[in-house]
């Protein structure tokens, strides 16, 4: 208890210093609620947060319940106090539960004073809870949530039921007006898109039957049906996204996709868009209170989009003003929101024509600016300081240019504001690398003829950002504009050998300057010095590359040296027989084969086959990791051609992929040759459409992550890593060949974010399970715990059917610690003839190759390193009855989005039904999923709820049935199933007793069949199938 009280005291101290910190308020409330007998402290904690910040129903509902229990329900002052609390709560965030409670309170209190058993309404209440007052109050509450497409029915239905009750109890005198009111209420509702439009129409039909003339029924229903049509169409267009929201448990990313789809429409629907933003903001605020990563960032993004949408929709200024006040209460640390607030005040104030009115607006904006800084949140982030400072300085500049204020009075204020913003940025690590405030201040000085001050801005910046090419190029440009050529040349001479983030930009600026203003001698001197500097830079880069390569090699050698060497007994192997390799995975020969011994016949010494010792596979021809650069900060609408043109002098580009993120446009550019990368990296800080882009090695912003909990999926990893920066992508491995693979690649938009996320390395997400996080350097793959899984596993062929799992464990444990033995067995428990042995260490698997040709159970076994294609082939070696069985529990998926990840799709499906195996065919945008049972396949095909994947509704069809597209990656109907079994193919006649061997190149006559055979050209052969699996 003492520790809890101390923690509570510490939190109160922190809140006194940081009252606008949401996380501190959330901790304060939770801690107070966890302590017994601290009701007053809970009340204080709940009341404290709304004093500084907007709060959700997790704060307001407990507060209102406590207030309802305390107020005197019969005095107007107490009731108005409670109602004002409701109003404050509903002004913060849209909450259907809160609005429902408000409605219930109003209706219940009204019912106490009406009806046969009603008690007299106290005179002290005035007209509060009278029928007219109640009707108006109910309507105001319902209108606050009427735009919620799926849950507004909870409010409107309550209002309708109350109105119908009033109508039934009304006198004949009042009934006519009430009938018109209820009728209009129904028609207005039918115009609006909502999920239960059918029920609303049925309610109108019942109302018309009971309260309208019989002869008018049909015409009224026809007119209502026409009115309803527009609302139904509007909801149908959005039903897919509403289902996606529900399926994703109202994930913020799905909200962002929903909003983006609404804003892409030719005409914005204010009714839907405003409500959608309110819902998204409320959900983001809820997740922020629960301290989910990135919820604050997403909440700010939603508010910015909402405010921009209101401006575009040209809503009433009073509505827009109230929304700005709500926004700064919700996200007081957002400089973008405060900046828009300042511009709104400037925009909506009537034309300033007098000095007095100009002073008033200036005072208002100054108050907003000061209030933003009082939160002490803006000062901690450059990206919040800059927009706020620019908005305030921009207003000051426009006041001066419009002649409203005297330049001598306003210019010093403007300069002081910008210098203050620059000072705040400089106090933060890294400052503002884009130098936005410095550029603005220098341009102000230049505009008003203070050229020396403009140069002084860049002189001061050069001391802070010594290695930034941007500072020095702006510095020299300022000197050149003011015709201080000697000074500019002197700066170039001083800095051309220094190390910058982009030295080529400095050299190009110097060369251009000398060509324009230099003598012949000065031009040649410049070129000579640039050439020398370029040589030194290239030399330094080569040395750095060699050093990095050496360090990687040294780390790999140390890792190998750390493996313990065990002296294990090794079975005797005839060296003379071990030299001849055995083709375990040989392709079927087209020439006549020789005699073959029986499966269990003891082989003669001459017939022994030897397994081939496989070397590690050579590097892939497509070295994607080493041949790709990542390009960020691209302008909107950038094209592949613009990027190819940027990198055209670096080497041949293989592929460009452009991706639009919520706050950035990024791309990956892959080259054919690895040698193109150094030249490509020099394009960092270059410009496309006058916008500076960032270029870095793709792997530097990519993390290799493994050893996470088995239930972890894509949303889990995005939440875990999202707090460190903007995520570009998460790539999941296919589980087609090994269902136990548990790793992924997390790619950020910047290497800085990736470096920050390395702090997760070693964190225990579950007891005894430490997360492994590495930068995905292709030269350091040895550090990955899954990349060499095949090198730790051996494939054993030629086993006797009497071999037991224990026999294999006994034999192969002599080479090292065995992690797992997987032996294929028949239904009767006998071995199928092959198995996989997985070791803990790669060296043990290499040692186990010595068991090749070892005699086990009177059979010579073949031992090679495991190959996923071998597993795929053996998995297919099943009888024809099994083909039909696999087909019966398989489902074909159509309508996949381009570039679908198998691992990601499998995660989505596994939340619905157990998945045994999945294979995606990108060329057809289809996939086939093998489930555990035919019953699972049937349930999936009969599923009524849509399956949403990356915004697409997936279509399901029964695998192998008419109407389902045949998969082109498999042979023609002779295979027919999900994964092609070798035995299902047409085989050659067996030679021997009762059989005649077919001549080479001939085909035995096929039996007549009712099912026409597809031509062989329509499918792919075993070679193509292996290539696909490989």
Automatic annotation (TrEMBL):
GO molecular function, one term: RNA binding
Superkingdom, taxonomy of origin: Eukaryota
Biased amino acid composition, Low complexity: 965-991
Subcellular location: Nucleus
Protein name as annotated: U4/U6 snRNA-associated-splicing factor PRP24
One GO CC term on file: U6 snRNP
Chief site of localization: nucleus
Protein's job: Functions as a recycling factor of the spliceosome, a machinery that forms on each precursor-messenger RNA (pre-mRNA) and catalyzes the removal of introns. Chaperones the re-annealing of U4 and U6 snRNAs (small nuclear RNAs) released from previous rounds of splicing, an initial step in reforming the U4/U6-U5 tri-snRNP (small nuclear ribonucleoprotein) that can reassemble into another spliceosome complex; this step involves binding U6 and facilitating the unwinding of the U6 internal stem loop, followed by base-pairing of U6 to U4.
Bias type Polar residues, positions: 1010-1020
InterPro entries, alphabetized: Nucleotide-bd_a/b_plait_sf (IPR012677), Prp24_RRM1 (IPR034397), RBD_domain_sf (IPR035979), RRM_dom (IPR000504), TPR-like_helical_dom_sf (IPR011990)
Ranges of residues in domain RRM: 627-700, 701-778, 792-868
UniProt keyword annotation of Ribosomal protein present: no
PROSITE patterns, per database record: RRM
GO terms under biological process: mRNA processing; RNA splicing
Keywords: mRNA processing, mRNA splicing, Nucleus, Repeat, RNA-binding
Chain segments carrying region Disordered: 577-619, 963-1030
Pfam families: RRM_1
Keyword Repeat applies: yes
Biased composition regions of type Basic and acidic residues, renumbered to the chain: 593-619, 1021-1030
């Amino acid at each position: 208890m003492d520790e809890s009280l101390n923690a509570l005291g510490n939190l109160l101290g922190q809140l006194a210093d940081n009252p606008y910190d949401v996380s501190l308020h959330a901790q304060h409330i939770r801690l107070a609620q966890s302590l017994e007998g601290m009701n007053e402290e809970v009340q204080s904690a709940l009341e404290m947060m709304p004093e500084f910040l907007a709060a959700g129903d997790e704060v307001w509902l407990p507060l209102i319940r406590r207030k309802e229990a305390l107020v005197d329900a019969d005095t107007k002052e107490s009731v108005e106090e409670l109602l004002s609390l409701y109003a404050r709560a509903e002004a913060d965030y849209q909450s259907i539960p809160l609005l429902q409670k408000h409605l219930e309170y109003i209706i219940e209190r009204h019912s106490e004073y009406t009806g046969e058993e009603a008690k007299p309404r106290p005179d002290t209440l005035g007209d509060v809870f009278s029928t007219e007052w109640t009707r108006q109050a109910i309507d105001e509450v319902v209108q606050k949530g009427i735009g919620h497409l799926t849950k507004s029915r909870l409010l409107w239905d309550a209002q309708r039921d109350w109105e119908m009750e009033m109508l039934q109890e009304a006198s004949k005198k009042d009934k006519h007006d009430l009938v018109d009111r209820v009728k209009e209420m129904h028609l207005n509702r039918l115009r609006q898109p909502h999920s239960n439009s059918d029920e609303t129409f049925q309610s109108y039909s019942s109302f018309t039957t009971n309260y309208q003339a019989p002869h008018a029924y049909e015409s009224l229903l026809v007119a209502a049906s026409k009115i309803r049509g527009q609302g139904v169409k509007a909801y149908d267009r959005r039903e897919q996204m509403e289902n996606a929201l529900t399926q994703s448990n109202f994930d913020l990313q799905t909200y962002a996709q929903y909003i983006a789809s609404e804003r892409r429409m030719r005409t914005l629907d204010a009714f839907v868009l405003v409500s959608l933003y309110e819902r998204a903001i409320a959900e983001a605020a809820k997740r922020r209170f629960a301290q989910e990563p990135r919820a604050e960032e997403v909440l700010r993004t939603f508010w910015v989009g909402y405010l921009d949408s209101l401006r575009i929709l040209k809503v009433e200024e009073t509505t827009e003003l109230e929304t700005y006040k709500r926004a700064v209460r919700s996200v007081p640390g957002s400089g973008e929101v405060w900046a828009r607030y300042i511009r709104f005040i400037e925009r909506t104030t009537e034309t300033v024509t007098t000095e007095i009115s100009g002073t008033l607006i200036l005072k208002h904006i100054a108050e907003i600016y000061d209030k933003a800084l009082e939160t002490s949140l803006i000062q901690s982030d450059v990206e919040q300081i800059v927009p706020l400072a620019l908005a305030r300085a921009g207003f000051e500049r426009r006041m001066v240019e419009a002649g409203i204020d005297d330049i001598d009075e306003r210019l010093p204020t403007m300069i002081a504001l910008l210098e203050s913003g620059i000072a705040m940025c400089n106090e933060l690590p890294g400052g503002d690398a884009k130098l936005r405030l410095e550029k603005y201040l220098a341009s102000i000085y230049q505009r008003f003829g203070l050229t020396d001050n403009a140069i002084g801005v860049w002189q001061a910046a050069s001391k802070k950002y010594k290695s930034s090419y941007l500072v020095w190029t702006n510095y020299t440009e300022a000197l050149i504009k003011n015709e201080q050529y000697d000074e500019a040349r002197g700066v170039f001479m001083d800095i051309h050998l220094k190390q910058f983030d982009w030295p080529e930009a400095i050299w190009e600026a110097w060369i251009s300057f000398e060509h324009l203003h230099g003598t012949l001698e000065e031009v040649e001197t410049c070129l000579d010095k640039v050439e020398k500097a370029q040589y030194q830079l290239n030399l330094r880069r080569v040395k750095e590359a060699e050093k990095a390569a050496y360090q990687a090699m040294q780390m790999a050698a140390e890792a190998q040296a750390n493996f313990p060497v065990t002296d294990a007994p090794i079975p005797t192997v005839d060296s003379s027989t071990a030299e001849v390799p055995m083709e375990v995975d040989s392709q079927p020969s087209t020439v006549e084969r020789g005699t073959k011994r029986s499966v269990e016949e003891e082989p003669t010494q001459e017939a022994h086959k030897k397994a081939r010792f496989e070397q590690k596979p050579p590097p892939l021809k497509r070295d994607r990791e080493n041949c790709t650069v990542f390009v960020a900060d691209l302008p909107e609408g950038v094209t592949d051609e613009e990027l190819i043109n940027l990198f055209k002098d670096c080497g041949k580009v293989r592929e460009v992929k452009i991706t639009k993120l919520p706050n950035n446009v990024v791309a990956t550019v892959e080259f054919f040759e690895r040698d193109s990368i150094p030249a490509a990296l020099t394009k960092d800080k270059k410009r496309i459409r006058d916008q500076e882009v960032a270029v870095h090695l793709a792997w530097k912003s990519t993390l290799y992550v493994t050893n996470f909990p088995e239930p972890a999926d894509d949303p889990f990893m995005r939440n875990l890593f999202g707090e460190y920066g903007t995520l570009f992508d998460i790539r999941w491995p296919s589980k087609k060949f090994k269902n136990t693979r548990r790793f992924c690649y997390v790619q950020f938009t910047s290497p800085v974010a990736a470096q920050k996320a390395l702090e997760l390395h070693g964190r225990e997400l579950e007891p005894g399970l430490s997360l492994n996080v590495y930068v995905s350097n292709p030269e350091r793959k040895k550090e990955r715990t899954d990349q060499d899984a095949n090198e730790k596993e051996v494939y054993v062929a030629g086993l006797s059917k009497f071999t037991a799992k224990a026999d294999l464990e006994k034999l192969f444990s002599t080479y090292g610690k065995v992690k797992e033995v997987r032996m294929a067995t028949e239904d009767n428990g006998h071995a199928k003839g092959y198995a996989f042995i997985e070791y803990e260490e790669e060296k043990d698997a290499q040692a186990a190759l010595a068991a090749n040709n070892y005699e086990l159970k009177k059979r010579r076994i073949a031992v090679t390193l495991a190959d996923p294609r071998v597993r795929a082939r053996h998995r297919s070696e099943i009888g024809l009855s099994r083909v039909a069985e696999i087909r019966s529990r398989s489902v074909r998926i159509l309508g996949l989005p381009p570039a679908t990840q198998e691992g990601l799709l499998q995660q989505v499906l596994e939340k619905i039904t157990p998945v045994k195996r999945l294979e995606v065919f990108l060329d057809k945008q289809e996939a086939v999923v093998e489930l555990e049972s035919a019953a699972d396949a049937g349930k999936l095909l009969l599923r009524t709820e849509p399956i949403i994947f990356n915004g697409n509704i997936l279509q399901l069809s029964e695998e192998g049935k008419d109407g389902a597209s045949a998969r082109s990656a498999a042979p023609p109907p002779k295979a027919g199933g999900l994964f092609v079994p070798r035995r299902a193919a047409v085989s050659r006649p067996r030679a021997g007793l009762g059989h005649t061997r077919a001549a080479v190149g001939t085909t035995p006559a096929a039996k007549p069949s009712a099912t026409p055979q597809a031509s062989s050209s329509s499918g792919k052969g075993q070679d193509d199938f292996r290539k696909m699996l490989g």
